[in-house]
Amino acid sequence: xxxxxxxxxxxxxxxxxxxxxxxxxxxxxxxxxxxxxxxxxxxxxxxxxxxxxxxxxxxxxxxxxxxxxxxxxxxxxxxxxxxxxxxxxxxxxxxxxxxxxxxxxxxxxxxxxxxxxxxxxxxxxxxxxxxxxxxxxxxxxxxxxxxxxxxxxxxxxxxxxxxxxxxxxxxxxxxxxxxxxxxxxxxxxxxxxxxxxxxxxxxxxxxxxxxxxxxxxxxxxxxxxxxxxxxxxxxxxxxxxxxxxxxxxx
Amino acid sequence: xxxxxxxxxxxxxxxxxxxxxxxxxxxxxxxxxxxxxxxxxxxxxxxxxxxxxxxxxxxxxxxxxxxxxxxxxxxxxxxxxxxxxxxxxxxxxxxxxxxxxxxxxxxxxxxxxxxxxxxxxxxxxxxxxxxxxxxxxxxxxxxxxxxxxxxxxxxxxxxxxxxxxxxxxxxxxxxxxxxxxxxxxxxxxxxxxxxxxxxxxxxxxxxxxxxxxxxxxxxxxxxxxxxxxxxxxxxxxxxxxxxxxxxx
Lengths: 250, 248
Description:
Order of helices and strands of chain B: EEEHEEHEEHHHEHEHEEEH
Structural class of chain A: alpha/beta
Oligomer: heterodimer
Radius of gyration of chain A: 18 Å
Distance between the termini of chain A: 36 Å
Number of helices of chain B: 8
Helix content of chain A: 10-25%
Strand content of chain B: 25-35%
Shape of chain B: globular
Shape of chain A: globular
Largest sheet of chain B: 6 strands, mixed
Largest sheet of chain A: 6 strands, parallel
Number of strands of chain B: 12
Distance between the termini of chain B: 30 Å
Number of helices of chain A: 4
Structural class of chain B: alpha/beta
Helix content of chain B: 25-40%
């Protein structure tokens, strides 16, 4: 990400990107650094709601020292191309938790790319991503977990679920594990689905109009992503932005 | 209230209902019985407007409106309630939210003001009490983790809150033990046994009819009503079996 040459789709982490849009903001600035000192806890969030047609790239380099913890909440909904990347290095016994939602319509290309390195033993990490994509939008999650040789007792998971509102929308989910230690627990799951037709008919049979029913099901799908945001004002702003975006998709 | 004439339909190109006629007036309770595969559930879903249940002929007039011209949610707003044989689970949406949105959608469609939160909770508590369902259950996601009996009771709580004119109840008695059957039966009577309301009960068995006494009983076989009578017909069916009665 430090090179000044515009990336190509040959590079895995740019494979689904909108490179034309990227060119308008290239080169992107150096990553935002977050260093969490030993034993500390940090909470961060990002609401990526760039204007229509804009390109937005947010890169984070996060270093979590021994026994520390970092919680990150991200809502990726804005712009023509919205990309958020995390390069995370975990110290001994530390924890990283990423909760993210991607909600896209039109011809938006939205992506979350993570590279989590368990460099030392006893660290844990969790990544939960929910995507809702309509029209011709593309939403991608590319997540790699790297477990170093001495990073014994690593416990990591990735949970990725996408919902497509139209057959013309695309979801990419690519969890990748590279494990060199032998006492490791790494779980990953990825699903792509649609709105539950049976639930929609059930709701209609009770008198709910289709737009309300769809919005409720979509809200339920992303519910939980922002549940553990501690700052109520931040939580409200993320949830309100997510709901407003969902309402544009029905 | 509901007049069905010569209704035919298809699911995935297969004809199920083959000229079904039935008339239900306000104040009446009708029961439809029949063997497996006769088209009983198909009738319920077709009247409810389930996608893929294609009407190929005939008419259904509900309160003066052409039922088949209405979308499923518009049918509900017009006063139709469909009780599901297999109520659907909706993770992440609480019963209370589900019902409040449904009720207010209906009220909006009818040009009525939405019910306030307080009024809604009062109504929900009253109907849950009627069916012996803990209010805590209504705070949980729709039907998720509910037993078969709880789902059926929750359906009747929904019916009570939505207060329809006509309830079509598809095997509401299935999956109920005797105690639950009594409670559900009493619930149906309390909510729907009124001069301006009507019920169409779809059932395999006589036992629900011990608690909800029908005014008319119909036998549905091979997509058509082949016999109609009073409550005594249900007893005759129970005693002699469908084959005997249908052949007679």
